[in-house]
Amino acid sequence: MMNAACEQLYLKLFKQILDQLYMDYNDYLILLKNKLKWFTNITPDRVEVFSIDDATNLGAIIPNLNHPELLLSDFELLRNDIKQCNDMNTVVDMLKNRQNIYPRLAAVYNFLLSLSITLATNESAFSKMNSIKNYLHTTLSNKKFASLMICSVENDMLDKVNLKCIAHES
């Protein structure tokens, strides 16, 4: 009877942990999406509508980008050149020759291009966590779920188990 109560407790705790991880990842993705929206107007097809609000918010996100007015001025000076670029990589290539003249623009585009790798990694981890959570909630029986939970919680005892003996007994 005591063993069943422990299993139920472990099962409940494991579900709570999964739910908390899911909510944390979800909150993190929402935060990222809210921060990334300020980068939409730096693309070649939208640079025409880049505003002081965009510059101010980018300054709050990107380290050492302290003067939104100067960033806006840089965008205004290079707006036509940026519009002629096909994609963001072309913009970065164009800025390589001018990064000493426009260091704020170079910082913005370099920050954005390095951010995509981080975001993709986080979305991938979130997607995997979501899949695991859904799978565990829908397909595992309570007994299997409890066994997994016990393995996780009693990890120190599990390390002492001889897996070869268990494999031969099965």
TrEMBL record:
One of its GO terms (molecular function) is protein dimerization activity. Residues 90-156 form the HAT C-terminal dimerisation domain. It comes from the Eukaryota. It holds the Pfam family Dimer_Tnp_hAT. This is HAT C-terminal dimerisation domain-containing protein.
